[in-house]
Specification:
heterodimer; A: mainly beta; about 50% strand; B: mainly beta; seven-stranded mixed beta sheet; 11 strands
Chain lengths: ~110, ~110
């Protein structure tokens, strides 16, 4: 089974600064997808960004970008110009060829005004 | 467009009781799945479906049943509730498996 590891239970960032959340995964597959989800206090899971394993180019969505290192099995999320609304729990997720999602344990992000 | 609708939002059960968590989506999504979220453990896949009439087990299927008689609905049944099933349950759906899932707002279940 695949495993997803988020080694930072908590992170904090000053408003307008940049923060990077780490994620590593373990797999023997070559075709898979990676995602970052945001869960604010409302409990709603919100898709932030996705990355196809076969694409070398790192995905970007406005202030959110990833650093995908396939050989190292690393998938970090960078949030630029952090805003108060970015405060949430962030989950890294792996989708395998069998359509099964595996989530990390999450990183709680605090944004300091 | 309601997205993914889960009912109820909160539920308290006694040990041994059974119940069904409802999940419906109006986006014509083929892929649907159920997860439970426990503190410090992220989300874990319970059951999933790739289309009407097709279901399969995820990481933690014991104590739960599912069926998929229509594209829109994917109910999760707890056969005999146990305190270990106290959790927040999420239903999610996707049109194509690789685009990322849309999640419902969750059901907080407490078994006493």
């Amino acid at each position: 089974a695949q495993t997803v590891t988020q080694s930072q239970p908590e992170m904090s960032v000053q408003e307008a600064e940049t923060v990077t959340l780490s994620c590593t995964y373990d797999t023997s597959e070559s075709d898979y997808y990676l995602f970052w989800y945001k869960q604010p206090p409302s409990r709603q899971m919100i898709l932030v960004i996705r990355q196809e394993a076969y694409k070398q180019q790192n995905a970007t969505e406005n202030r959110f970008s990833v650093n995908f290192q396939k050989a190292a099995k690393s998938f970090s999320l960078k949030i630029s110009d952090s805003q108060l609304g970015d405060a949430a729990m962030y989950f890294c997720a792996y989708l395998n060829t069998g359509n099964q999602f595996y989530f990390g344990t999450g990183t709680s992000l605090t944004v300091i005004p | 467009n309601a997205g993914v609708t889960q009912t109820p939002k909160f539920q308290v059960l006694k040990t041994g009781q059974s119940m069904t968590l409802q999940c419906a989506q109006d986006m014509n999504h083929e892929y649907m799945s159920w997860y439970r979220q426990d503190p410090g453990m992220g989300l874990r896949l319970i059951h999933y479906s790739v289309g009407a009439g097709i279901t399969d087990q995820g990481e933690v299927p014991n104590g739960y049943n599912v069926s998929r008689s229509t594209t829109e609905d994917f109910p999760l049944r707890l056969l005999s509730a146990a305190p270990s099933q106290t959790s927040v349950y999420f239903c999610a759906s996707s049109y194509v498996r690789t685009t990322g899932y849309t999640f419902g707002s969750g059901t907080r279940l407490t078994v006493v």
